[in-house]
Specification:
Elements (H helix, E strand, L loop, with lengths): L5 E7 L2 E8 L5 E6 L8 H11 L4 E6 L17 H19 L5 E5 L1 H12 L7 E4 L9 H12 L3 H9 L5 H4 L3 H12 L2 H10 L11 H5 L5 E6 L8 H9 L3 E6 L6 H4 L1 H12 L4
Parallel strand pairs: 3-4, 3-5, 5-6, 6-7, 7-8
Antiparallel strand pairs: 1-2, 2-4
Length: 281
């Protein structure tokens, strides 16, 4: 762990959350919400950004409920929207516990869905919202569904590596050690509680994801929608939908980038964030 990032456990609605922080508590707060890929954690998703943006912002990055080293409630509600509801309420409780009134929020993939739901539940609790590779109507691309299913049926280093390869446009250019990343995430994904929660998320009998145009039209926050043009996990059309129906949204599409635009275009992504949060965009 880098010196500028600290970790601790915080109770939120009777659930323990592993929290990573950087920057001064006196700076503008930014809440970072990771996605739902197997074995994901806040540090796996945001490590570089938490380090490099520490001087400017007070960065708050939890392992979202049911992931990493945070609690895994049992039973866990089945289906995407039911799980998002629980996680949105729990994340608002985390802000209460931290006495953080209204942070900016950056949500990647499922984290973006949680951010949208938080904006619906408690509009005054959020400032600006960044949705990166997020969904709002419809789910994963068919190939991503197939590879996710292959991992769920046979959780091995090979199926994990095959799944993670879909997340990036060019792993060689990125300099990604896919074997090391796959091993790190496999250990977490195969923990019994983590696997149980992951299975609940895709339960076919649970609630499906669907934000209608009317739902999105009531969210008046300034929103930056970001997507990688070559995203093979969540199609670019998902962000077109969000940008079309969120009244105060702007859309930025990164070329030569997959689902992890914040890695593959990190310099541009940081510049975009700074400009957006500082009212220069």
């Amino acid at each position: 762990m880098t010196e500028s990032i600290t970790s601790r456990d915080v109770m939120a609605d009777d659930h323990s959350l592993r929290l990573y922080e950087s920057g001064s508590g006196n700076a503008t707060p930014v809440l970072w919400l990771h996605g739902s890929g197997p074995g994901v954690t806040a540090m796996a998703n945001w490590r570089g950004l938490l380090t490099e943006l520490a001087p400017e912002f007070y960065n708050i990055a939890p392992d979202v409920l049911g992931f990493g080293d945070s609690a895994c409630p049992d039973p866990f509600p089945p289906g995407m929207m039911a799980s998002v509801d629980l996680r949105a309420k729990n994340t608002l409780a985390l802000l209460d516990a931290l006495q953080v009134e209204s942070p900016h929020v950056v949500g990647n993939s499922m984290g973006g869905i949680i951010a949208i739901r938080m904006a619906q539940m408690a509009p005054s609790r959020l400032r600006k919202i960044v949705l990166m590779g997020s969904a709002g109507n419809g789910g994963l691309a068919p190939d991503a569904v197939a590879k996710s299913g292959a991992f769920a049926a046979d959780a091995t280093i090979e199926t994990m590596r095959d799944l993670l390869r879909m997340f990036v446009y060019d792993e060689a250019q990125l300099g990604l050690d896919l074997d090391a990343l796959a091993a790190e995430r496999l250990e977490i994904a195969t923990r019994p509680d983590i696997a149980r929660v992951a299975a609940a998320l895709v339960d076919p009998n649970g609630s499906a994801l669907n934000f209608t145009p009317e739902d999105l039209g009531q969210i008046l926050h300034q929103v930056l929608v970001v997507h990688g043009r070559e995203d093979r996990v969540l199609p670019l059309e998902r962000s077109y939908y969000l940008a079309q129906h969120l009244p105060n949204a702007q859309l930025h599409v990164f070329p030569r980038s997959g689902h992890w635009a914040h890695w593959e275009q990190q310099g541009r992504f940081k510049a975009l964030l700074r400009a957006f949060f500082q009212d220069a965009l």
